[in-house]
């Protein structure tokens, strides 16, 4: 039969391990992910129905949210053209990090530190002729 001291030691070891895991999941981590953004609902004056843009996002979140993000991560996110912010008349548009983090197709609510590239150019030469 196992001695009582060994049983107590194993219970303390398991308890310490559980507390360590909880502590690690509560810490904040930075991760970088590749994401394909698809701009949908493009105005009909352009020849394209949607625009595909490869993005890199830097995410800051707790360990638990990072685990959930990695398990339910989608490589495509759909952003409406109306959610882009127009910078100037030369076709430059800004993708806000809030637009990605609040998107319904993004699995977990996290804080996005950086989006690269954050500015995209939509070529106006592709306008349909009236």
Radius of gyration, in angstroms, nearest whole number: 23 Å
Secondary-structure-derived class:
alpha+beta
In CATH, the architecture is Beta Complex
**Highest-level CATH class:** Mainly Beta
Q: What is the overall silhouette?
A: rod-shaped
Distance N terminus to C terminus?
90 Å
Order of strands in the sheet with the most strands?
3-1-2-6
Order of H and E elements? HEEHEEEHEE
Q: Give the biggest beta sheet.
A: 4 strands, mixed
Helix content range: 25-40%
Summarize the structure.
By secondary structure, the protein is of the alpha+beta class. The protein is 28% helix and 34% strand.
Features:
130 residues, alpha+beta, RNA Polymerase Alpha Subunit, Chain A, domain 2, three-stranded antiparallel β-sheet, 3 helices, 7 strands
């Amino acid at each position: 039969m196992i001695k009582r001291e060994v049983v107590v030691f194993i219970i303390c070891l398991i308890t310490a391990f559980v507390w360590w895991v909880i502590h690690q999941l509560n810490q904040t981590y930075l991760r970088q992910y590749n994401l394909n953004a698809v701009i949908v609902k493009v105005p009909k004056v352009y020849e394209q129905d949607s625009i595909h843009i490869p993005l890199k996002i830097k995410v800051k979140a707790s360990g638990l949210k990072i685990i959930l993000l990695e398990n339910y991560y989608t490589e495509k996110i759909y952003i409406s053209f109306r959610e882009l912010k127009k910078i100037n008349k030369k076709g430059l548009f800004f993708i806000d990090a809030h637009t990605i983090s609040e998107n319904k197709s993004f699995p977990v609510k996290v804080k996005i530190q950086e989006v690269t590239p954050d500015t995209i150019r939509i070529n106006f030469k592709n306008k349909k002729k009236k």
